[in-house]
Amino acid sequence: MSTGNLDSFLKGSFITIISFVVILMILKHWKGAEWLKIGSTIFIALIVLDFANNQGAVVLGVVKWFASLFGINFK
Prior knowledge:
This protein is mainly α. It contains four helices and no strands. The protein has one domain. The chain has helices at residues 4-11, 13-31, 35-52, 56-69. The chain crosses the membrane at residues 12-30, 42-67.
């Protein structure tokens, strides 16, 4: 089974689609100055884009580090 086309989509078109949706959501929340929603939208988009670029292990490492700041430890 060839997954070249799927890999090409995830590294190109998928990132463009996610970026467009994120920009629309930021503009929607910008008008009401909902900074927590803007920040969480950006954070979630970064996680999704990192998984699309096959860097999910890096993201999970950062999430584990951030959670450890609050005393949450994953094994």
